[in-house]
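Backbone Fold Data
Goal — fold tokens
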Amino acid sequence: MAVNEYTITIKNESGSPMRFMLFLERPTPNDTSPTGFYNNIWQTSPQIPSGNSTVRFKITDEYFAILGTNPTPLQPGTRPWTSSAVPVTLGPDGTSAFVTVPDDSPDWVSEKFKKDAPAGSFRIVTDSNFRSPNENNVFIGTGMRDPRHPESVIPVITTQAAPAMTFAFEVTTHYYITTGEQKKGEVVEEPDYRNILEVEFIREKDGTPYFKDAVFTYTAEDKYVADHKTGNEASRGRMRVQQRK
């Protein structure tokens, strides 16, 4: 399947300088992650002055299975970095990537990779030769390229690795915009944020998005107002837009 590209543009007319952040929808809690899934900030903007100033987030639906270690367990405020990433295909027949963790040092076992993950997801399967928790706080998750530095893969959904488990990572074209000072890759607690803009790009049956370029104005009333074209596409059901206070 070809890689789709999307953009979300925010015009700051709030009367104050703002930094905007982009993160993904967190997978629904399920039995495949004993410690739960975490949101990580994917993209951040510089400080955007008010008045005819914009930030444009570029999005591609290119996904990676990631692994790494961290000085502390994952929790809001930690900023884990990807040690290794492999490209994955979403199901049906999605990638199931196999991880081994000898001496608490994670690595891929490529010869054990399979193509059996269900629709809209990929899997990471861990072996049984480590303990959880462990000294290196091994984590796994979903990664996406850094648009400014495409050679880097940013953690966007993470969870602590546990032995002998199959972790299912569902992926959607559902994105969140908010304001704040967090950094790329930083673990955040979604309910802590107010004025979150939710944007979902709807796809046709063949995976092609109906609409790829959404534009909003952030106002002095802390509202995200869609431009005419974006609002029209939303009214036609070609994308979904919602703001949470």
The mean pLDDT is 91.
